[in-house]
């Protein structure tokens, strides 16, 4: 049984040199005229999803274009239209998340950069990995998604040519595979992640939001290409939803309006049916939930961008769709600087709306609330707050709330009647200070407004406690846990399992504290010992640390504590040198250490007896540490922490 290692523009001819033209085998007279808004047709390059939980890319390609003749907007046009600096992006890492493989991605990108006189890619500047962060095996090649990939990579190079680029290719277009790739892009160090894909909304999307909840990372998502109607993940409250415009150059400069080609083709927008309104969406949207879009950029294929594609294409093409605008905006974020570590960068434009080009004309359909589908002064659904006018609107700073309130779950608690209790609750996000309210406490305990629970329990029994923190702006967050009170003396809960969610079968970490993406399902490529979920530490093949911990209260009178878990270790390392390690601790005491040298063909049970824990608070922790080379996966499942008198 092997565990896969995971994460482990109209061309301005004058701007192109004669040497660049010659390198393509073209004389200057062979270049196409500016793209017309009335010529040729348009085709979608990705298949329409045939099953639920499948995403589609948003790339649209104009038909009838000459593959040997570049046309469409190029880097200098985008820089001019959006007042962006040329040759920017140094030091930034931008990730592109797409499905399937484009086998010609690197060579096509090099050809695009050469044609437009951009600096050649340096060693290590471009990386292509699978959804688990490995260079092989790569997914099956797909000619449609290859077009999407070419578009995304070319737009990053056009706007931020000196940025590092990571292409993360999901195994398929399923939401599970793409979400795995999303988490991997962040794990690989990208501070800017572009997603040019999506699908319809569903009631389960609020659970899927965890894959986009990455503070300190600017995540952009295409708003959709089918006109008015909300799409996910653009309506996730953790991303920047990017709409689309028609961009034209006039004698007096650049002009934009809502992109809307016909009744089935145009930028998406709408009011989410499921995701709540984020604290940073401070403008009036007419929607009590999350509304899209936030900002926009060129997306109309009739005024589209130049793309070079040879897998599924024959060379030069003109592309559009919000697949173009999403990587453009991700790259503008990269030009603006590194996001604040606890920030949700989708908030930045709302603090700097005056630094955007407000798009005030056009519509993408009909809707019950006019601003959801019709452009106007200020925010509107199709174009959000507007398009870039320099980088200031995408930079950290201003008065942006840092995010939602999150309460740290203290884990299930256990005491005996008469114990002296002192438990301090904690929260993060939102705007401190927090005011606390706690319900369901055992008799004899009370909580202060600062979140400290004190007192002595008077009655045996088990309670469900809910702790709620309210920040200075009125935003709330909650956590629930159980509290068992026994009579002590070796009775009560001695002999019971003290850990909450011991097999991770809730599908999420709580009440464990865990690194992002640690709790995984069988669909992610690993396998649970029992059930469908497990904890997956490391497996990256690059420097990385994953953590998993939970604190329990051992009742007084329970003098024997047994601790066990099942571990499955799979590795690419060879030999007996411990390159990658898993450290298991009880409080500060190291219980055991494992490494790649302990690789096994399946799950192995590990059992320990802890002494001196009666009446004590014990933190059980797993820490996986991986070096910079090759990957080791540590899978943990069915953890038990039991007591006896």
UniProtKB/TrEMBL annotation:
Region listing for Disordered, in residue ranges: 197-216, 247-270
InterPro entries: Galactose-bd-like_sf (IPR008979), Ig-like_fold (IPR013783), Peptidase_S8/S53_dom_sf (IPR036852), Sedolisin_dom (IPR030400), TAT_signal (IPR006311), Tripeptidyl-peptidase_I (IPR050819)
GO MF, any single term: tripeptidyl-peptidase activity
Signal peptide region: 1-32
SUPFAM superfamilies (alphabetical): Galactose-binding domain-like (SSF49785), Subtilisin-like (SSF52743)
Keyword annotations of the record: Signal
Protein name as it appears in the record: Peptidase S53 domain-containing protein
Source species: Actinocatenispora thailandica
């Amino acid at each position: 049984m092997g565990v896969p290692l995971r994460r482990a523009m109209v061309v301005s001819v004058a701007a192109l040199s004669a040497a660049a033209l010659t390198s393509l085998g073209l004389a200057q007279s062979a270049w196409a005229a500016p793209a017309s808004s009335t010529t040729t047709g348009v085709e979608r390059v990705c298949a329409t999803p045939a099953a639920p939980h499948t995403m589609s890319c948003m790339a649209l390609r104009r038909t009838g274009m000459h593959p040997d003749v570049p046309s469409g907007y190029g880097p200098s046009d985008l820089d001019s239209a959006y007042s962006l600096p040329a040759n920017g992006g140094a030091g930034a890492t931008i990730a592109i998340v797409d499905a399937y493989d484009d086998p010609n991605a690197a060579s096509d990108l090099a050809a695009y950069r050469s044609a437009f006189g951009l600096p050649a890619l340096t060693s290590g500047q471009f990386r292509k990995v699978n959804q688990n962060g490995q260079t092989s095996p790569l997914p099956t090649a797909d000619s449609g998604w290859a077009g999407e990939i070419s578009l995304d990579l070319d737009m990053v190079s056009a706007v931020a040519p000196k940025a590092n680029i990571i292409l993360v290719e999901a195994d398929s277009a399923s939401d599970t595979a793409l979400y795995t790739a999303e988490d991997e892009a962040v794990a690989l160090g990208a501070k800017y992640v572009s997603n040019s894909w999506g699908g319809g909304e569903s009631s389960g999307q609020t659970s899927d939001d965890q894959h986009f909840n990455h503070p300190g990372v600017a995540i952009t998502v295409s708003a959709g290409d089918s006109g008015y109607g909300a799409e996910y993940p653009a309506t996730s409250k953790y991303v920047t939803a990017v709409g689309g415009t028609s961009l034209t150059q006039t004698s007096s400069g650049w002009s934009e309006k809502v992109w809307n080609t016909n009744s089935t083709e145009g930028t998406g927008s709408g009011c989410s049916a499921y995701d709540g309104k984020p604290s940073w969406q401070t403008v009036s949207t007419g929607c009590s939930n999350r509304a899209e879009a936030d900002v926009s950029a060129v997306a109309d294929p009739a005024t589209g961008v130049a793309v070079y594609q040879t897998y599924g294409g024959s060379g030069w093409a003109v592309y559009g769709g919000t697949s173009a605008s999403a990587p453009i905006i991700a790259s503008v974020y990269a030009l603006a600087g590194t996001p604040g570590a606890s920030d949700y960068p989708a908030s930045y434009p709302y603090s700097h709306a005056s630094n955007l080009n407000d798009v005030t004309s056009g519509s993408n359909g009909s809707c019950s609330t006019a601003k959801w589908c019709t452009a106007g002064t200020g925010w509107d659904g199709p174009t959000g707050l507007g398009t870039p006018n320099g980088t200031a609107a995408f930079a950290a700073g201003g008065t942006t709330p840092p995010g939602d309130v999150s309460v740290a779950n203290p884990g299930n608690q256990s005491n005996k009647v008469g114990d002296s209790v002192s438990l301090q609750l904690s929260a993060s996000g939102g705007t401190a200070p927090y005011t606390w309210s706690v319900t369901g406490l055992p008799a004899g305990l009370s909580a202060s407004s600062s979140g400290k629970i004190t007192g002595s329990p008077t009655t045996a029994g088990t309670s469900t406690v809910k702790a709620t923190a309210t920040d200075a702006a009125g935003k709330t967050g909650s956590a629930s846990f159980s509290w068992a009170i026994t009579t002590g003396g070796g009775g009560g809960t001695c002999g019971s399992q003290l850990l909450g969610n011991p097999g991770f079968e809730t599908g999420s970490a709580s009440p464990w504290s865990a690194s992002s993406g640690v709790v995984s399902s069988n669909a992610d490529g690993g396998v649970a010992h029992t059930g469908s979920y497990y904890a997956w530490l490391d497996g990256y093949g690059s420097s990385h640390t994953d953590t998993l911990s939970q604190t329990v209260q051992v009742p007084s009178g329970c003098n024997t504590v047994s601790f066990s878990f099942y571990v499955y270790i799979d590795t690419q390392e060879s030999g007996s040198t411990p390159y990658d390690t898993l450290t298991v601790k009880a409080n500060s005491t190291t219980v055991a250490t494992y490494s790649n040298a302990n690789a096994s063909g399946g799950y192995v049970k590990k059992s320990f007896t802890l002494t001196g824990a009666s009446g004590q608070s014990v933190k059980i922790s797993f820490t996986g540490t991986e070096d910079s080379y090759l990957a080791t996966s540590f899978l943990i499942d069915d953890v038990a922490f039991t007591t006896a008198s």
